[in-house]
Recover the amino acids of this structure.
């Protein structure tokens, strides 16, 4: 019977031949990821109440990112509790190594075909690797850690096809902001979104991760991309024992005759850099249509905007330039490894020379924590995924969302600016 | 279960169910403001056993568990809607609040006395002698609801396992 990628993964996890959308099944979890904010401090009391130990400590990964670097009393206390728990429960723990959604695949924990839960709303990021990964709350996570199982209503699939290739200075973030505008923040209907088409095939893993991550902004449960050679070479690089070869992943895709809830087709070549006005990712428009907007803070950070490639492309705009006066550029590389690589390649130096402030490999103000929260009436352009009112600081602050390139261009211009202006004037737009 | 209907429209969101400004006050205070923006007298007039009936996309918005918890705290016996936002649906069932899907709610009016039969998958309008079909809940979720939610369900299961009983 023809099936979607989502159905195939869930059927295997549920120990069935096939599963039908709308039906509730109980599935075995291959991996559970938790972080310092929603993790031990919320889950341990429930586990204690239940009086049980972890179902399988080898299948639990803990990552500290929300309260790193612990620059507030509360943050320091929560980190301490997180570290203690990791030692007591003996789970894999990546402490201060970067943002969970980036560190998890980077350290080889994810593989195509896995059924994974995460204690964070952007857990759909794992879908970029052909894993069915979704976010759950603390109560459900405690249940998973106790039993290794979870119930799931088999989703329908919304296929999002991007034909042709993206042009210069247009990124996965621009694709997602455009989708939020077009489909709305409930366009995903808590079903599975799957990205496909020539533009997706051409994207790197880090760009694909941004697409899957922001399936959350579409209100989808998961954001999948079928594994291919790009997936395989990324996984090999992580040093993970990937086991199944690309050939063995052949079946991990949506069959052509599978029933879909919807099939949307977009033209990647026609897409322009997007920005989303405060206070919703759905308020997106091509950057050229935005009225003159001065910015105080430019933020290159978060799981959707400060990975190695994001840093590299933002630096290409900043190289040899300085920040506009009155603008503060904050750069919080998404992981330690990505930052190390960027340092080795001279990318971090570009940020420093331009006058940027380099922050910890953590969620930073994207999670609304820490000393750098936005102050009253600050206008910020940010490479993060959400710009809900007050999320990154004072309720009176205004956050515009954009790609890291657009953020870099705006930092140099002192106003929201089109990154293409900064590429073409060097004649390097090939 | 039986009670009176409190009828709402489409897109009831988590900020209406659990208004952000009362989140710090704990569930006791929060539930007193449940649905206040759309129906100021809701918390004061709802009685244990009453049923919330709504249109599409009930519980849209944030993933806060308190949205379902507030309804439960007020004694709401079930929410019947044409569709639910996914995370609210999960949270409701896990907290022991039946979230039931009904395609056709046209005949149900505010204040109607109704009875819900989970086994039969029916909502019965007593005075109108009318039956509204509910999408059947799978057995595992029915058991979880009967136990009072996920944590209570797991406690029961683990106790049974410790006592050497088999099965769930
Ligand atoms: S960087 Fe932002 S979006 Fe990503 S996990 Fe952290 S808080 Fe969430």
């Amino acid at each position: 019977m023809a099936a979607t990628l989502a159905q195939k993964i869930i059927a295997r996890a549920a120990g069935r031949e096939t599963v039908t959308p709308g039906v509730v099944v109980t599935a075995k979890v291959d991996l559970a990821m938790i972080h310092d904010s929603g993790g031990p401090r919320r889950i341990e009391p429930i586990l204690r109440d239940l009086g049980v130990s972890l179902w399988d400590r080898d299948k639990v990964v803990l990552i500290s990112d929300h309260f790193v670097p612990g620059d507030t009393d509360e943050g320091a206390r929560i980190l301490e509790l997180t570290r203690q728990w990791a030692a007591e429960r003996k789970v894999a723990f990546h402490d201060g190594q970067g943002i969970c959604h980036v560190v998890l695949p980077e350290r080889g924990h994810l593989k195509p075909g896995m059924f994974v839960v995460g204690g964070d709303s952007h857990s759909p990021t794992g879908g970029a690797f052909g894993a069915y990964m979704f976010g759950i709350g603390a109560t459900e996570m405690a249940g998973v850690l106790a039993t290794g199982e979870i119930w799931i209503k088999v989703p329908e699939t919304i296929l999002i096809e991007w034909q042709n290739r993206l042009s210069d200075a247009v990124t996965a973030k621009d694709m997602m902001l455009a989708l939020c505008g077009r489909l709305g923040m409930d366009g995903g209907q808590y079903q599975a979104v799957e990205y496909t088409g020539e533009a997706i095939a051409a994207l790197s893993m880090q760009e694909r991760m941004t697409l899957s991550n922001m399936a959350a902004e579409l209100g989808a449960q998961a954001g999948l991309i079928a594994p291919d050679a790009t997936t395989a070479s990324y996984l090999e690089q992580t040093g993970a024992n990937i086991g199944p070869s690309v050939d063995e992943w052949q079946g991990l895709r949506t069959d052509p005759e599978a029933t879909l809830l919807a099939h949307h087709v977009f033209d990647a070549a026609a897409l322009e850099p997007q920005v989303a006005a405060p206070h919703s990712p759905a308020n997106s428009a091509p950057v050229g249509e935005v009225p003159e907007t001065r910015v105080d803070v430019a933020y290159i950070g978060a799981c959707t905007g400060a990975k190695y490639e994001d840093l590299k492309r933002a630096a290409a705009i900043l190289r040899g330039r300085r920040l506009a006066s009155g603008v503060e550029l904050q750069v919080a590389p998404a992981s330690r490894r990505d930052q190390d690589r960027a340092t080795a390649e001279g990318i971090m130096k570009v940020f420093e020379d331009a006058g940027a402030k380099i922050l910890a490999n953590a969620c930073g103000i994207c999670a609304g924590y820490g000393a750098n929260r936005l102050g009253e009436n600050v206008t910020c352009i940010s490479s993060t995924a959400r710009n809900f009112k007050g999320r990154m600081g004072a309720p009176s602050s205004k956050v515009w969302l954009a790609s890291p390139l657009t953020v870099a261009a705006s930092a140099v211009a002192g106003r929201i600016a089109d990154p293409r202006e900064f590429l073409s004037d060097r004649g390097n737009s090939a | 279960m039986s009670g009176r209907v409190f009828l709402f429209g489409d897109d009831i969101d988590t900020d209406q169910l659990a208004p952000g400004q009362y989140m710090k006050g704990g569930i006791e205070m929060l539930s007193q403001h449940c649905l206040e923006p759309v129906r100021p007298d809701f918390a004061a007039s709802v009685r244990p056993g009453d049923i919330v009936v709504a249109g599409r996309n009930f519980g849209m918005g944030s993933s806060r568990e308190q949205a379902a918890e507030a309804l439960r705290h007020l004694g709401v016996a079930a929410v019947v809607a044409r569709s639910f936002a996914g995370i609210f649906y999960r949270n409701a069932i896990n907290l022991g609040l039946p979230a039931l899907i009904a395609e056709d709610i046209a005949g149900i009016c505010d204040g109607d006395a109704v009875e819900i039969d989970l086994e039969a998958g029916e909502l019965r309008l007593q005075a109108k002698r009318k039956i509204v079909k509910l999408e059947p809940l799978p057995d595992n979720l029915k058991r979880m609801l009967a136990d009072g939610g996920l944590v209570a369900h797991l406690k029961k299961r683990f106790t049974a396992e410790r006592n050497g009983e088999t099965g769930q």
Residues 2-136 of chain B form a domain with the Aconitase; domain 4 fold (CATH 3.20.19.10). DSSP finds seven helices and seven strands in chain B.
